[in-house]
Request: fold
Amino acid sequence: MTRPADVLDDSTLPPPEWAPRRGSGVPWVFGGLLVVLVAGRLWVAPRLDAAALDAWTTVFVAICVQALPFLVFGVALSAAITAFVPARVWTRVLPARPAAAVPVAGALGAVLPGCECASVPVAGGLMARGVTPAAALTFLLAAPAINPVVLVATAIAFPGSPSMVAARFGASLLVAVLAGWTWALFGRGLRVPPRPEAHGGAARWDAFRQAMRHDLMHAGGFLVVGGIAAATINVVVPAGWVAGVAGVPVVSVLTLAVLAVLMSICSEADAFVAASLTQFSPTAKLAFLVVGPMVDLKLIALQAGFFGRRFALRFVPLTFVLAVTVSLVVGEVFL
Reply:
């Protein structure tokens, strides 16, 4: 006798790790945060320059407000993939072999508008539906770097320079594919986020709500942590340090690559910042545009939260080295 499709069983319920745990450290975390806020207000704030504090607040709020809509979009898309898209769909769309699935996933990243905050939960949803991690990670890197919105913004920021748009597209896609292939060969330590399997209409909507609520709360906290770090770096690092190295070719490329990580600008807006750095070479600006959507502070925090710190410690340096190297080569050849 077959079971009706809309009958709920244990397979439709969220996994145990989604349930709140007794004796967890959450109250202690909030208590510690409250102590830090009070101490900062009483002893740290009076010693800060008002302009620096205003700048920190502006950068922090800008990062969070800029990223939050894309994060919500990514979480909703990830939850929809989890709840409504059967696993067999991805086995038909993507080749079975990781070596062939990686470039296909990179090409799919070109058609989804969104920033890096959206790509992390989407990549997690793809993995939960059976997509090989190497292909999902390729999509994670490619989607915020080569989607149509980013390319149009780059063309507007660099009028009369179609070579910069082409160089950004080619270099970013190449980095994503190389990172995916490298992870397919040597990758270890990735924690795939669990997802419940739902059957029937009511169960699927319940799974959608559960997945979206879990990912939004989880990723939102790491977004705040990344925003705090990026705002602090933006205020602490003197602007003169950056301008002083603009004339040294390789050092200028590394400087803008590190600056892209620290500033954590959304990929839809980073081209305008790069265009304003007139003292730097086109190759250095290309490195800024390639590195930023793939490696920044908020993205590192999101990756560590979704896939584990062990994964982030391996994948982030790999991506950074590939992005800088490819940017140097593509920039010297085409720019």
About this structure: The two ends are 67 Å apart (CA to CA). Confidence is low (pLDDT under 50) at residues 1-14, 16-26.
